[in-house]
Amino acid sequence: MILALDISLSGLGIAIIDELGKLVHGECIVTKPTNKKFNTRVMDSDHLRIKEISLRLKALHEQYSFKGIVAEVPPGGSQGARSATAMGLAKGAVWNFAAVMNLPFENYLPHEAKKATTGKMNASKEEVIQAVKKRWKDFEFPKAKKHLEAVCDACSAYMAAENNNLVLTLSI
Description:
Layout: E1 2-6, E2 11-17, E3 23-30, H1 42-64, E4 68-72, H2 81-100, E5 105-108, H3 110-118, H4 125-135, H5 145-161, H6 165-171
């Protein structure tokens, strides 16, 4: 089993693919900042969001026993300081999870994932979704647009990894 991710603090996309390439699970972990009326500091809210992601990844590992992780990870260049911080926190949470669980991890840039999925480096979200749905036509994808996009982006990370070291090694 391989865990494929679309890394984000607000909507982390998950796809779990078995040894035969069958998509067996897909979801989106949605985290939200703690309500300001509780007077929670941003750093405490971030901690709770990271904890939520980490605990869900742990539960999925216990359920599916995946042997490695592939992820679509933007190179940086966020629009603002808060966006860059949120992406850094999400990357750190996932990378730390992989390290603590002693799981191999490979990163793929969005254009690499799009190219592997659609044949085009500048494919639209809709083109990626259609290509992923065509590949795994028997899987019931989430209905909510944000969740669908996140799961499909995670699937595209798997497709980018398919002919590379991690997926080939773990498929043997």
